[in-house]
């Protein structure tokens, strides 16, 4: 029987459990044995790889976080760590792996697959495994699934977890708005997103906020005057509350960080708006809690496609990740998308926004 393993890696995101459930159950449905790797790459290195049955993933759809654990694993950055990982997989008879994580995890996956044949050679020449033991496992097949609340991966319209984080942010803003409106207060709400303003922008649209700061659209030198003018106008039109949403990576056009406390000071300014203003940094509530239906569905459809991808892969086929493009679940080349994502982050750091946007919109061939 073919053996397929699934793992979650990098920062957790809502929907990762639905991925695990979908991969395990699809693998079993297709006549394979399913395994879970616990604690991300750490579990590959330590050999924490457990056979998983249909019933073991019961109830996974509605659980937040990742029940099989995730970790940052230093050993996996180094070749000896990856060699150990290969050995543990061969000992379990596994040569097909679905990885759900961010761009770092997917980079590690691609490197692991590329190195696999030489890692296997080393295991044999070093006397750790015999030629007979490794013979059926000369090639590793890998597939990526993107678990990230940031929706920051190029080549896919959505990542698993982003819809849940966005829903959570909107819910929190709704709660805050009750107080803001009752006391006629202003609130500055900081949301996650160092290089990607998706959550801030969409939350701003969904809650009708007064002003939004995102990394992709740095404010020009008179952002203070602009914001004051707009907030003042809204107040004059009878609005009893002010909501400003700021992504953690917001900057001005000189690359200087715009912080929530800078915005608070401006709203409070005794010579200006004089608003009773508070800041709320939403932090990890954005990542927590159960996945919304959209993420459960995305994770399930992509988990099914991931298993099909692994079963159809050959030693020659390119390493893929599962994307969603115009509402269709599709396979795309993994490293092209990961490289573009990393280039986007660099372009945003360098304030080259037209390049960043072009890279983010790249359509990678299927
Ligand atoms: P997030 O978006 O939440 O940061 P991520 O998947 O990008 O998720 P990372 O911390 O970058 O998170 O990567 C998770 C793990 O993947 C690392 O701890 C490491 O074990 C492995 N990894 C990341 N990059 C590489 C790489 N270049 N080579 C080998 N392994 C890597």
Concise account of the structure shown:
The mean pLDDT is 95.
Draw up the topology in text:
Layout (H helix, E strand, L loop, with lengths): L2 E6 L7 H14 L3 E5 L3 H6 L2 E4 L26 H14 L3 E6 L1 H23 L5 H4 L6 E8 L11 E2 H22 L2 E6 L6 H10 L3 E3 L9 H14 L5 E6 L12 H9 L8 E5 L11 H20 L7 E6 L2 E6 H16 L3 H8 L6
Parallel strand pairs: 1-2, 1-4, 4-5, 5-6, 5-11, 7-9, 7-10, 8-9
Antiparallel strand pairs: 2-3, 11-12
Bound molecules: adenosine-5'-triphosphate (ATP).
Keywords summarizing the entry:
366 residues; alpha/beta; 12 helices; 12 strands; 44% helix; elongated
Give your account of this protein's structure:
With 366 residues, the chain is α/β, with parallel strands linked by helices. The chain contains 12 helices and 12 strands. The protein has helices at 16-29, 41-46, 79-92, 103-125, 131-134, 162-183, 198-207, 223-236, 260-268, 293-312, 334-349, 353-360; strands at 3-8, 33-37, 49-52, 96-101, 141-148, 160-161, 186-191, 211-213, 242-247, 277-281, 320-325, 328-333. Strands 1, 2, 3, 4, 5, 6, 11 and 12 form an 8-stranded mixed β-sheet that branches. Helix 1 (16-29) links the parallel strand 1 and strand 2 (33-37). Helix 3 (79-92) packs across helix 4, helix 4 (103-125) packs across helix 11 (334-349) and helix 11 packs antiparallel against helix 12 (353-360). The radius of gyration is 23 Å and the shape is elongated. The model has no long low-confidence stretch (mean pLDDT 95). The structure holds adenosine-5'-triphosphate (ATP). Adenosine-5'-triphosphate (ATP) is lined by residues 9-11, 41, 72-73, 76-77, 101-105, 107-108, 111, 148.
């Amino acid at each position: 029987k073919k053996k397929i393993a699934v793992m979650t890696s990098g920062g957790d995101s809502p929907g990762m459990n639905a991925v695990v459930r979908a991969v395990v159950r699809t693998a079993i449905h297709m006549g394979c044995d399913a395994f879970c790797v616990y604690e991300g790459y750490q579990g590959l290195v330590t050999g924490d790889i457990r056979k998983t049955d249909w019933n073991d993933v019961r109830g996974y759809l509605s659980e937040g976080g990742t029940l099989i654990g995730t970790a940052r694993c230093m050993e996996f950055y180094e070749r000896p760590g990856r060699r150990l990982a290969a050995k543990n997989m061969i000992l379990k008879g596994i040569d097909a792996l679905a990885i759900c994580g961010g761009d770092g995890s997917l980079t590690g996956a691609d490197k692991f697959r590329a190195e696999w044949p030489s890692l296997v050679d080393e295991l044999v020449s070093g006397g750790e495994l015999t030629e007979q033991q490794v013979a059926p496992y000369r090639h590793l097949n890998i597939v990526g699934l993107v678990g990230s609340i940031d929706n920051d991966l190029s080549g896919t319209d959505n990542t698993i977890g982003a819809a849940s984080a966005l829903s959570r942010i909107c819910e929190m803003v709704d709660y805050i708005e009750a107080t803001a409106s009752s006391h006629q207060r202003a609130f500055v709400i900081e949301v996650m997103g160092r290089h990607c303003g998706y959550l801030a922008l969409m939350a701003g649209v969904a809650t009708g906020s007064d002003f939004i700061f995102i990394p992709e659209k740095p404010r020009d030198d008179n952002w203070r005057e602009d914001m004051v003018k707009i907030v003042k106008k809204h107040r004059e039109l009878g609005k009893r509350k002010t909501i400003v949403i700021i992504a953690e990576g917001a900057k001005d056009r000189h690359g200087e960080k715009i912080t929530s406390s800078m915005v608070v000071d401006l709203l409070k300014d005794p010579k200006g708006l004089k608003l009773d203003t508070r800041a709320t940094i939403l932090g990890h509530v954005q990542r927590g809690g159960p996945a919304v239906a959209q993420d459960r569905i995305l994770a399930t459809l992509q988990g099914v496609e991931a298993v099909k991808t692994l079963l159809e892969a050959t030693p020659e086929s390119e390493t893929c990740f599962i994307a969603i493009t115009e509402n269709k679940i599709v396979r795309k080349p993994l490293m092209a998308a990961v490289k573009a994502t990393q280039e986007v982050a660099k372009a945003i750091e360098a304030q080259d926004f037209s390049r960043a946007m072009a890279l983010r919109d790249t359509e990678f061939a299927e």
